[in-house]
Give the backbone structure.
Amino acid sequence: MEKAVFIIFAIVAVGSALNLIAQRNPLYSALSLIGTLASLSALYVTLHAQFIAAMQIIVYAGAIMVLFVFVIMLLNTPEDHPEIEKQQWLRYLAIPFAAVLIGEALYVFREIRNITLPAQGEAEHAIGTTWSIGTNLFTQYLLPFEATSVLILMAIIGAIVLARREES
Amino acid sequence: MDQSGIANYIPILIIFLLAIIFASAAIVLSRLAGRNRPTSVKLMPYECGVEPVGAARERQSVKFYLVAMIFLLFDIEAVFLIPWAVVFPGVLRDPSLRHLRFIFYGEMMLFMVVLFVGLFYVWRKGVLEWNR
Amino acid sequence: MTGLLLEWLIKIAVVFAILLTAVAYLSYMERRVAGWIQIRVGPNRVGPLGLLQPLADGLKFIFKEDIVPLKANKLLYIVAPAAAIIPALMTFIVIPYGSEVVLFGKQIALHVTRINVALLYVLGLTSLSVYGIVLAGWSSNNKYSLMGGLRASAQLISYELALGMAIIGVLVLTGSLDLVNIVEAQRGYWFGFLPKWNIFLQPVAFVIFFLAALAETNRVPFDLPEAEAELVAGYFTEYSSMKFAMFFMSEYLNLITSCSLATTLFFGGWTGPGVNSYPWLSIVYFVIKVFLLIFLFMWIRFTFPRFRYDQLMRLGWKFLLPTAIANVVVTSTVLLLVN
């Protein structure tokens, strides 16, 4: 059952990711990305990481993608004849990046065998539940947590400064 | 079956499929049942019976973008509050964790102060004013 | 496993059917309430007291001409109403609508499913409901639709923050994201008569939640996205037939969900006197509470004028959000001092 669910959502995730690249219309690409994020959320559920699954939807699909869609709507790129400036050198840059990515993936597949996963029952209560994330976040990872708040503050100021410059 | 197990997510999957079926059925049904006599006037964008002027997709105010941006940032902050709000009452109740209660409280207050500073900045910069 | 699956399927089918019927009759109720408040009659021709009106409306919707404007983006134009109604249909299944009853010799809990991040599930689906509106506004290729869509989405995300912050005030009291636990925590009485409802502990959070819920469901005084005087019908200006009906239905579904969530979080959900000995009563209590809240929503609709857009944004960002944050600070400080 779990395996079937995993396979279905993995296919949807990869399929929408491919569609994201293939589409010419930026809005279609953004919607495909939402599909990928939503199926990733389902995959997190199969891994018992329920809190992370919910966050995936609330933060990524529900907030970040809203911003993306807003930008696409506000800029209003012409729909049918995209005049994309083809930068040829970008194409050649893609080859080494792809090689690095494939290398990374192979490394992960090789190393994953050496990792001992926690037992099923343990995993259910240890990883990804709200309680465990909360207790770890506010004790062990306190500094990153507080640093995040400052980082978000910086992002707020940065966003306003950039948008305001355009206005005046 | 345990109460918090992921098997309880199966109904969500079922209702998701059911909702998709319902939505597509509704769309297809009205397509089939309703009459379909398109005329060129009928298919024009609605503009109160007048010939449409200009393109519909004009550039919109940057305000909308700014609101979405600020929403995103405050949403992330709110997300940090959720695990805290789950853990904090537990820390107060659990005798073995009770000594941590002031630390947990202080951490979040510090976080909230930064959040308020952000809101204050946005406020003073006039991003929340829509009539300017 | 098969038994459990069967139980789920039956529950989902029943909840689904009840939700759709409720949506149909809310449109009837809304018009009757409007008539009553404005001292006129309201629909009363189809069937006794006009009770068959929703059926007539439904049939009419199906047989109306389905228009897709020539300049619209056809695919997204068709997908948009589905994107609006799918999350709206999915939300209700985590809400506990009763305690446990015995049926055919089997103990049955009166909620479709119970997950320990139920509250986040609801919030997540709320945040996804923006897309139906945005896509409808953009794909119609109509000025009114685009303006309505943009306004609606900016409003939804602004009030989503206040809504989330108000919920955190309740969360800090119970420490659980599981709605079943939140209801259980509100059982019993203080001093023997005052029910242990969260509203008595979190009145500020309730007011914020209520106002934000009004805005999230696009209802007066926050119905600017479809302000008929300036934007025709907002993001669904171009829609007709069942596609129009689907936006309509998703708004009523969101109304039901918001009121059910308010009941669950602040009014003790299905709790009430006599629930222990007569568990079926719990459903009655739940329905009555939700119904009263929905009535309050309708009452407000026909009483208050609409906000201006700058007033709306000011209320959301400059009043509700800071108040909600302050509410969380005060609540946690009191909790710390009491313990």
